[in-house]
Amino acid sequence: MNNEILNNLRHKDEKFKEYINSLDLLEVVSFVESLELEDLIHLSNNLSPSELSEFFPYFDNEVKKKLIINLDEKYLKSLFDYVQSDDILDFVDNFDEQIKEKLFQVVSTKRKIQIRSQMAYEENTAGAIMSSDFIELSMEDDTFSALKKIKKQANNVESISTCFITDENHLLVGSISMKDVLLAPENIPLKDLMYKDVVNVNDDDDREKVANVMSKYDLLLVPVVDEYHHILGIITIDDIIDVIEAEITEDIHKMSGLQTSEGSYLDSSIISITKSRIFWLLILMISSTISGMIIDSNQNIALKLPSLLIFMPMLMSTAGNAGSQSSSMVIRGIIVDNLTFKNFFTILKKEILNSLFLGLILCVVNTIRIIFFMSSIGLEVALLVSFTIYLVVIIANIIGGSLPLIAQYFKLDPTSMSGPVLSTLCDAISLTIYFALALLMIGGVL
């Protein structure tokens, strides 16, 4: 790092602020995180609380911890008046009791009440991720008084693009854009300009539902209300991007048979990675006993037709792949198109019709493949294997399409049914059908 910049920082030279202003947000964060503790403390001498608050939410938790421990209490109090409540909540849970106690000592009473009330919400609900800092206007305001209120609150709120209007009981009655306030004549009452049908979410709604609402209505922010329709806070699009990332990560983990883990892969310890993987690996290893039992109980068939064993991996793989494809499409439908158990028979019909075509194509191609490239395999076995594929694809698609909806009906996570559970079911069913058809062929029924 440039020694001149550090000297400017240590001696409160204006050139340091000029340097900071020349950087973009990520460059400032990277610069601050590279500072030693001594230089980190000098930040309060060079940047005002409002200036530091612009970067504070983006520092890693270790830097935040050092600042909370070492900065002057008066400075910290002012700093946290500018940091949004949802940004404070993002890191407060990661600190030990000593840091939390210091934090609650320096924040204002208003901030303390906001933080503690949000900490009471269940994890992943709208109330837990909302910001309590928003522009609130009264129905009795006109555009002139509204502008004065907006200017007064602007530095301490999450967004000024949309303002929310409440009545004398603090009930949400409308919203108005900053653009409309600026362009309207000064003496126009807000109740004559406001938009009354405000899309909102409840404080106990799941964060995934909030993401769906904002996506459906193309919203940059959405108000959060309680059961009586009092406005409590707002959720902005940047919060929802974080939610979507977290939900996608969680779904990928569950679909792959992993327990959800926090943090990036590179930052995760070997122990935490092992813990996230071992549970489902053990379950799958033990559940494979079912497939082993099916094979063991049909040894006599395998002895009579040894060539059957060649196709077992292919059959299980095809069944698993077909089921996973079907499951993935239905899970996407649940998330994006709000499919529910009410759509069960429509989806069942679609999957059956689809699998009839898929199964037929795979059946024909597999028969041709065996005849031309596996001349040692008899035609009877080729037809047996291909017909098994046909049936297996139909059944796997039905199971793959049904399991997520059944899981949703019983209030389970649909993604948890698309990985190991589906794989185990498809393996067992494909082997059972295979050996049952082989037995019928040996007995002369087929």
Describe this entry's structure for a reader.
The mean pLDDT is about 85. This protein has a three-stranded mixed sheet with strand order 1-2-3. The chain has 22 helices and six strands. The chain is about 65% helix and about 5% strand. The protein is mostly helical. It folds into three domains: about 5-120, MgtE N-terminal fold, CATH 1.25.60.10; about 135-255, CBS-domain, CATH 3.10.580.10; about 270-440, SLC41 divalent cation transporters, integral membrane domain (Tetracycline Repressor, domain 2), CATH 1.10.357.20.
Give structural attributes.
446 residues, mainly alpha, MgtE N-terminal fold, CBS-domain, Tetracycline Repressor, domain 2, 3 domains, three-stranded mixed β-sheet, 22 helices, 6 strands
Secondary-structure-derived class: mainly alpha
Helix content: 55-70%
- Largest sheet: spatial strand order: 1-2-3
Name the CATH class of the largest domain: Mainly Alpha
The CATH topology label of the largest domain is Tetracycline Repressor, domain 2
Q: From the alpha-carbon coordinates, what is the Rg to the nearest angstrom? A: 30 Å
Number of domains: 3
Distance between the termini: 80 Å
Largest sheet: 3 strands, mixed
CATH architecture of the largest domain: Orthogonal Bundle
Residue runs with pLDDT of under 50 for 5 or more positions: none
Approximate shape: elongated
Mean pLDDT: 86
Order of helix and strand elements from N to C terminus:
HHHHHHHHHHHHEHEEHEHEEHHHHHHH
- Number of E strands: 6
Alpha plus pi helix count = 22
The portion of residues forming beta strands comes to 5-15%
CATH homology group of the largest domain: SLC41 divalent cation transporters, integral membrane domain
